[in-house]
Amino acid sequence: MTYTAKRRVLLVGLALFTLWPLLHIYLVIHFNLSAWKLAGWGMYATPRPSFSGIAVFGRRPGGQFEEVRSAPPAWQALASQFLERQRWLGQLIRPTQLAGWFRQEMPELADFRIVVYSPTLDRQSGMIVVRQFTYDYLGSEPVR
Amino acid sequence: MAKKRQPRVTWADRALAYLDGDDPATELSKVRAFQWIFVLIVCSEYWARATPKSNDLGLNYWVALSLISALGAATFLRRWGRLAFVGLAIAQTVRIWNDFPGGGNHSYLELLLCLVCAFLDVAKSQERALFLRTVRWMTCVVFFFAGVQKLVHGYYFRGELLAYSIGIEAFKPVLELLLPHDDYVRLSHYHLKAGDGPYLVSSALILALSNATYLFEMGLVPLLVWRRTRQFAVVSGLLFLFGIEMAAREFFFGLIYINMLLLFIERDVNRRLVGVFAAVLACMLLVRFKVLPEVIFY
Fold it and tell me: ipTM of this predicted complex?
């Protein structure tokens, strides 16, 4: 490869390297992506995300949402995996695999609601508050 | 005889040219020293992560370690050096893939530096100049956006992030020194649980330090670019990093970053520091292998 070509490749690379943190900041603000990861250089810019909790609610046709309390170990492993990824990727990922699992294992339930509880430091008050993210998987819609 | 065509000088080249400023006699030795130190850090990190406590290589670690060590050694050879950097870049990619999305930011920096080392032949003066410009630009970007992120997310204005950091074991000794006693006692009682807080501090010193952090990170960049202030910027950048690492203990990131900062110095000062880096890394490995007393670092 000639020097000119190499220079061109590097200039494009450096432009991307310079612009990526701006997009990263946008994703942190709008999609709750963690500032700590993915080369946005925001380590220690926000509190390091702590571990979140998760709850699943199911609804029979015509009924109310009720929490599904008896989750087998296989599901818990899936949930932990999801929470670890969600901790860093925020709303860029959805618990689709979990919903799919429930739809397969509990066909008697028509709708599912997965709620993720995420403790976070509130900037205004300086208190730890719990943010709640809700994902609905309704009816016979394909799980996406 | 046909005249060799010179590449067109663009505005990007002119902008990057502000980062020039090297002693031609020691330029090559400076770049080589940078690469040696960099490889020592990358390889040591793989070893440090292979201890029983932190084995998260995602591969059978003996195979991985042998391979990484062989690649690291090969980067020191003129003939195979760039190819070995390709190998290290592949290893880094596998590591990032296995850890995704939890891998640290320095893993990405290491990957990119491996690629730059593989891509450019630093024995050629034109490519060496491009190498220096590239690494220096990357250093400026990392410093600048570290500050911008702190400013944008707003956890430094009232010292919230520093107060919250009391939940991180490595920060405690430094915060005990800096915080007023009452604040330290109050914050120590929180466990980062819902309802805990307020994570605010009353000390003017802490507020000043907190706000100075992002101002320094952003403000350092023009000082690094301007040649008259570059030496001063390198020294203050190093002191700043030492200060940060006293609390954060992100030693691998810190060492990579110190190595990048040293590249801004006109002469090959870093060559004289290769041994120091090697000694520090050896101590870190001995700590991980429990030969030396435990010190928290990441």
Answer: 0.92
